[in-house]
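Troubleshooting log. The previous structure file for this entry was overwritten by mistake, so regenerating from the original sequence record. Sequence copied from the archived sheet and checked twice against the printout by T.R.
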Amino acid sequence: MEFWFTERQTPNLGLTCRVKESLWVERTPYQTLAILDTYQYGRMLVLDGAVQTTEVDEHIYHEMLTHVPLLIHPRPRRVLVVGGGDGGTVREILKHPEVEQVELVEIDERVIAASRRFLPTISCALEDPRARVIVGDGVAHVAAAQGAYDVILVDSTDPVGPAIALFEEPFFASLHRALKGDGIFAAQTKTPYLDGALIAQIQRWVARRFPVACLYLAAIPTYPTGLWSFMLGSKRHPHDRPDEVRAKALETRYYSPEVHRAAFALPRTVEELLERARSALP
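Regenerated output below.
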């Protein structure tokens, strides 16, 4: 008998993968967590039925969330990750020798535990001495910080359950306060083809506080529509000037300085989607 898993991404759209084995399923205090071993994408982390990361394409997401802001900042010494309990973002951050400390704040300890056990190529850097893993509420952590971080990366799930607050205006105000005077943040903001109104609203909130507020894109096969977006907010540094010398020293599979600059060139259809969404906002 064949075993297939389907993520129902909308009422009319889904992603279906043939599964070799279900490695782990549990109900945590926050969500249903599963680790599936699939034929097409290797091991896959699934939360409440939604694919979070896979061994085959996780590098795209983690590299683009991480290296775009870190290579804009001239000296990113202290970095915060909100969410991201699988550890992939921490792994990419620690490729930068300038980073002295990275703090990971993940609300669900079971995501960290499952990733350490079943996704070692993704979670491998969580034991690094420069990494500090905190089990707690990322929203509260950011709200309590004042000028503490050079870079903040929001590696969140979809805006449901405890992650809803990560997609609301007060959180972006907290991000601004938690960053140093030349700080930068980046956050995943879903797909423009299905979430244009949400992205347009987030860009409006970010632009109220950050001189540089830009959307950028990456192609990630297992995420809805395959085209994923990230919002970048910078207090000082331009979005399109990555440090070429530091970039060439990184071991990456997707990111490059050329990809960095191209990611901010939005397709015309995406620009039109966002413009229509902005004009509909109150």
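The CA atoms of residues 33 and 47 lie 5 Å apart. Archived copy saved in two places this time.
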